[in-house]
């Protein structure tokens, strides 16, 4: 089935073993595994088709920034051998085709209700089941409620003074029109300079007559060096598939180059350090971040990486004033999510691309015809909001989720998300959060982390069936200890010093808590495995 094609919703039964929220990468794999366990399961998906983040984020230039063969499911060797990626970093349309292929290949659609949003999920303590209601008026009773809602699925809604007055079209990168947008000859404003903006601006600039980039905080970006996939890379990957997949699973961030080298930047001579950074920059992608072991923990080492990146920006961008505005100054390198680009800094050498620094000249209002800063008025035909997401907790807080004694998840998380292993929340039995806050999730190759959670959860449900258990919930103590651990290791790094979406800093009023688990994918996997092999230590399990 074509990815863009809307399709009829599969009717929902009144009862299922598991109701999965979301048909992105995690929901699809979860459904596949539950079926294999002999459980009845349905997915409710707000969109008209599968794909999650890759269904919604269709902005020009959208592509993965982990190498294609690494950003793919590992659960089926046949799938992996049959599918051929065309580029080193696959673009959104190709990834969406891949996910549609997976949906067809494993016959997933018959258990997915599309165009169906979950409004509320309430735990019925007497029945030990979730009562889940959709915006289509259906109500489903499920033993397990599995939130496969994604970490970056709820757009940060623009709320700029005067924005309703604007007469031209506006777009959010996270909700891009399916039919695409033709900017040919148009004057376009882009607000934001995160990954979505950094990927889309060079593409928009190919069509637009003028591009005005409104930057609040500059980001660090490293070149992708994208191109057709090297057949040798693909062959080597497949020849060593098992070993590579195992390396991913036990790595720092779920891909092969994510393990930092043992060497410290601060104990490396200037020439050698520069050479290592140059090699990583030439290699492209996130490998720069793993160039030395101390970059994310030692301010002195981090400053060396920051200085290297700043020199690169100054080398690429010809206008020294523009270059200086593009150099991040007030947070450590890599502590806001590193971007991976194709021609981002270079685009500012084009005469029709203009950078407006909102820290120097704040935005005052949007008008009928454009934007006004303290510098002056910018007349534009279209505005692109590349302002990010209500990350990690946004999708869950939009659903009225109530656990035991009517406790709402929003109340339970009023001071920031609390979970055990990022998988479950005390007071919310049988509710599972795939790649939830408190797990490596956004600090990792998402597919690797998704598969780990889904596999762990599948093993748990197998165990529960075998022992005739029907209800699981973390103890308050285990949750509290996990939250402390997540915070403690985050505080050993430089990450919490930046105003990033990892901390909810991009959403006014959101509690400032470092949400993902930064202890590493491999270490986290070992912890989860140990919990399981010790009889699901830290959880309470009981019969219905
Ligand atoms: P983002 O990183 O949160 O960037 C949003 C940008 O909008 C920031 O520059 C932010 O400035 C700016 N902004 C927000 N509110 C603003 C306001 N009121 N006024 C002016 N500027 C404002 O969002 P994103 O670019 O969509 O990326 C989010 C995440 O999605 C990424 O970090 C990444 O994890 C994921 N992503 C991945 C890929 C990929 O893998 N290829 C591509 C795109 C996105 P401040 O920094 O000052 O807040």
Most strands sheet? 8 strands, mixed
* Assembly annotation: single chain
- Write the CATH fold name of the largest domain: FAD/NAD(P)-binding domain
Q: Tell me how many strands there are.
A: 20
| Total DSSP helices | 16
Structural class: alpha/beta
Q: Briefly, what CATH class of the largest domain?
A: Alpha Beta
> In percent, how helical is the residue content?
25-40%
Strand content: 15-25%
Number of domains: 2
The stretches of 5 or more residues where confidence is low (pLDDT under 50) are 1-6
Round the Cα radius of gyration to an integer and report it: 23 Å
What hetero molecules are bound to the protein chains?
Answer: NADP nicotinamide-adenine-dinucleotide phosphate
**Shape, please?**
globular
Tell me the CATH superfamily of the largest domain.
Answer: FAD/NAD(P)-binding domain
End-to-end CA span: 40 Å
The name of the CATH architecture of the largest domain is 3-Layer(bba) Sandwich
